[in-house]
Amino acid sequence: MKKEMIIVLDFGGQYNQLIARRVRECNVYAEVHPYTLPIEKIKEMNPKGIILTGGPNSVYGDDSPRYDKELFELGIPILGICYGSQLMAYTLGGVVKTAPVSEYGRTEVDVDKQDSLLFHNVDAKTVVWMSHTDYIASVPEGFEIIAHTPVCPVAAMANPDKKLYATQYHPEVTHSVQGQQMIYNFVYNVCECAGDWKMDSFVDTTIKEIREKVGNGKVLCALSGGVDSSVAAVLLSKAVGKQLTCVFVDHGLLRKNEGDEVEAVFGSKGQYDLNFVRVNAQERFYEKLAGVEDPEAKRKIIGEEFIRVFEEEAKKIGAVDFLVQGTIYPDVIESGLGKSAVIKSHHNVGGLPDCVDFKEIIEPLRLLFKDEVRRAGLELGIPEYLVYRQPFPGPGLGVRIVGEVTAEKVRIVQDADFIYREELAKAGCDKGLGQYFAALTNMRSVGVMGDFRTYDYAVALRAVNTSDFMTADCSEIPFEVLQKVMTRIINEVKGVNRVLYDLTSKPPGTIEFE
User: Choosing from 132, 170, 251, 347, which is the catalytic residue?
Assistant: First the structure.
């Protein structure tokens, strides 16, 4: 049976992936597509609903992204958010103008039509997240205003007969107190979805699809030991068994002792019946990265070198048809979707070289968010300690070392990170953190140790709380714990004389440094 789907059409908004995430929280499948998706393709996909994202443009600008009016005449329920709401109004004959007063941040909105399908179980006054300089000055024919603020006359509008709804604010962000209820209402009350997106069905369906695709072919899995690649490996193992060989490339950019830990879990003495190959390629990666400072260049070099190593190992195994990677949905979106900005090329997406010597690349987790990957892991019977281990980027410490990567810098960040993680665990502060690590800045500064002047590096500590890894807030680590970490790093890690704590949220920052 074909699953229900909500299409999220991206107009360049920073929250596009979060919208899809919120829809999936309602047990309804959602996919993000660029606004250039042809209307014929939309008809073919037959979605239960469409959501138009926000974006940085003004709808009356000459080069602003638009969509054909026919979209609103398909009979498919549509929810426009921020720019998406203005686009709906503009396209259907309403008036959009520069707002006399811009609204940013938490805003109290008055719900004028509590009986609207969009506002079921929503309070008459509720707090939402606004971020706009334009506004809808008058609604199109057939629409009614269903919410307002003192300076925004059309905070939400609706044409119930045509199942068209729009909000000037962002219900998808956590700062919109009842925003998830509104998304739930759109999905179930307006789109009339049944909610058939379940992880057990995803696992069973994916295993079946992989078996059909692979047939008798040989499969090579890129296993890093992280959550994503581990889930992908076990998923493939259940699908094709001994046709799978897992290659673990120790590129010299792993956390301290991690190479041995990965081998202990997945190697011949581990708990999984896998063909496991460890390739020690540290020097090879260091040579390729020598003198390279640009983050995107580093990611692409690491990505290409990964592929080249896998190709070489595949030739040793003989006639390998498929390469498996643990790519997940945030990787795909952040690497650039349509005309959206490339936030950073993930080594297994935007970092892939143009020519890859495999019949096909299989990415079984490509459409899952991180928490969905964890649920899939539990469904597959992977132990919790593996499923909930700290995430680690594919390029490894290469993106936690700002500037050029050298063996000496790797040693510094490995030792500092080990101390940081050890002290957080001792203090019990590691529980519930989304991600935490030490990174090495390229800043050197003067210090004093004993009676001597030093001129050494600064280490930056990072810890964030996040549910989906698409947005994140800085974690409040007790000051005495940070002081202890700082003292140990400076005393025990040669080459460091300063320790910083990164307070930046995502956005505007990213979780990793590069």
Answer: 170
Written as one letter, the residue type at 443 is M
Beta strands 452-465 and 473-474, pairing class: antiparallel
What is 71-115 written as a DSSP string? GGGSS--EEEETHHHHHHHHHTT-EEEEEEEEEEEEEEEEES-TT
Establish whether 355 is a catalytic residue: no
10-residue mean pLDDT series, the chain (514 residues): 84 82 90 93 96 91 90 97 96 90 85 96 94 90 96 95 96 89 97 87 87 91 84 91 90 90 82 85 95 93 86 82 84 51 38 56 86 89 81 87 96 97 94 91 88 90 85 92 97 96 91 89
d(CA 330, CA 327): 9
Candidate list 82, 152, 193, 429, residue with the active-site label = 82
Q: Is 82 designated active site?
A: yes
How do 30-34 and 49-52 pair as beta strands?
unpaired
The answer to pTM > 0.90 is no
Distances (CA, A) of 316 to 220, 279, 309, 312, 313: 11, 12, 11, 7, 5
Q: How many CA atoms lie within 13 A of 325 on its CB side?
A: 22
Strand partners, 138: 95
Is 281 in a helix, a strand, or coil? coil
Q: Residue 26 burial by CB count (10 A; 0-12/13-18/19+): exposed, middle or buried?
A: buried
3-state secondary structure 149-205: CCCCCCCEEEEHHHCEEEECCCCCCCCCCCHHHHHHHHHHHHCCCCCCCCHHHHHHH
Distances (CA, A) of 371 to 298, 377, 470: 27, 10, 11
Q: Residue 132 phi/psi, 5° resolution?
A: -155, 150
Dihedral pair phi/psi, residue 111, rounded to 5°:
-85, 115
Residue with tokens 């239960």: 48
Tokens of 364: 């079984």
Farthest-apart Cα atoms in the chain, separation? 79
Given 172, 304, 334, 423, which residue is catalytic? Answer: 172
Tokens of 121: 């179980």
- Residue 170 appears among annotated catalytic residues: yes
Extract the tokens encoding 250.
């120790």
Task: Take residue 75 and report the two structure tokens written for it.
Answer: 């009979």
Helix (H, G, I), strand (E, B) or coil at 8: strand
The pLDDT value given to residue 40: 96
